[in-house]
């Protein structure tokens, strides 16, 4: 049961969660801003492109019509033999000239009318139909690109994520507030003296990391959680930190530890237990401890080691406590 118990949450854990939630919330907001800006920019570019495309289509139609008129007028000016024959015709009377001029004018007007009709049928219709097809195709593509349905889905998802992260952020902030309040009153810590028949006269110690007292020699242990007994706390902490299974824990000593430099105050309860000779401690939390060694108890009272001891252990070594016989 000790191996499956829930691991304690510390102020550092809550601060880390709070930092992650704040980072995710800021990232989501930045994504929303970037998407909104990109959407607005895309709409402006599409509008300009569509206006330009429509203007080019109109210009293309006008250019095609002008070219058709010019090509239709070329046969009239490219028949020198016909004009020459008219100039070389015998001289007519005034009335005959008037009649001939009238007839020629009528024929020319009729020809131009026929050319205009032919232009409309042979040139304008196919050209305009092709331009309309190209324009409609481009317009369809622009409408597909301009569709913001996918952006709306992304925005909706990000809004939901932001709401969820905000809720988690508030929860983490509340937890941090409560944990910080707890630092203003004395807390209860549990240290465990572990003995082994393989190492008589020694206890298991390690070098602390990532917390107050970093770099100091200390015992396995941690905070007493709400509703826990001292024995349950000792069993849980030893399993979490060393993967050792201990039982029959008994009270060894208690110390009152006011750590002025760290602005912390602990009541430390020392429990003790003996493991078998075949059990070997493991480094299961390398972010909290550099490693475990068996250290002679008497050597911990030497001045050169006293300065390296975590305050609760240092006070225990200078107290009336002595190791029990194995």
UniProtKB/TrEMBL annotation:
Keywords: Coiled coil, Hydrolase. This is Nudix hydrolase domain-containing protein. InterPro entries: NUDIX_hydrolase-like_dom_sf, NUDIX_hydrolase_CS, NUDIX_hydrolase_dom. GO terms for molecular function: 8-oxo-7,8-dihydrodeoxyguanosine triphosphate pyrophosphatase activity. Pfam families: NUDIX. The keyword Signal does not apply. Residues 11-38 form a coiled coil. GO terms for cellular component: cytosol. It comes from the Eukaryota. Transmembrane segments: none annotated. Residues 185-318 form the Nudix hydrolase domain. One of its GO terms (biological process) is dGTP catabolic process. Signal peptide: none annotated.
């Amino acid at each position: 049961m000790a191996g499956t118990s829930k691991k304690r949450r510390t102020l550092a854990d809550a601060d880390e969660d709070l930092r992650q939630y704040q980072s995710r919330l800021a990232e989501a907001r930045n994504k929303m801003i970037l998407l909104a800006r990109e959407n607005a920019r895309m709409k402006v570019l599409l509008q300009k492109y569509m206006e330009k495309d429509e203007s080019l289509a109109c210009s293309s139609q006008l250019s095609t019509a002008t070219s058709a008129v010019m090509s239709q007028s070329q046969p009239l000016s490219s028949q020198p033999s016909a004009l020459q024959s008219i100039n070389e015709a015998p001289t007519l009377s005034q009335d005959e000239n008037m009649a001939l001029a009238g007839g020629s004018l009528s024929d020319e007007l009729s020809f131009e009318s026929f050319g205009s009709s032919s232009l409309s049928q042979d040139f304008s219709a196919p050209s305009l139909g092709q331009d309309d097809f190209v324009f409609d195709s481009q317009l369809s593509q622009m409408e597909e690109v301009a569709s913001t349905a996918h952006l709306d889905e992304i925005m909706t998802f990000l809004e939901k994520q932001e709401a969820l992260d905000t809720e988690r952020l508030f929860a983490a902030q509340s937890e941090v507030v409560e944990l910080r309040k707890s630092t203003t009153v004395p807390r209860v810590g549990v240290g465990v003296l572990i003995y082994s028949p393989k190492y008589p006269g020694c206890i298991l110690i390690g070098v602390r990391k990532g917390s107050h007292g970093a770099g100091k020699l200390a015992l396995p242990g941690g905070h007493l959680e709400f509703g826990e007994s001292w024995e349950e706390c000792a069993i849980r902490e030893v399993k979490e930190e060393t993967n050792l299974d201990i039982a029959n824990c008994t009270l060894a000593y208690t110390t009152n530890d006011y750590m002025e430099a760290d602005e912390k105050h602990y009541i430390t309860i020392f429990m003790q237990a003996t493991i078998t000779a075949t059990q070997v401690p493991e480094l299961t939390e390398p972010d909290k401890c550099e490693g475990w060694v068996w250290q002679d108890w008497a050597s911990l009272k030497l001045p050169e080691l006293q300065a390296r001891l975590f305050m609760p252990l240092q006070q225990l070594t200078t107290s009336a406590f002595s190791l029990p016989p194995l």
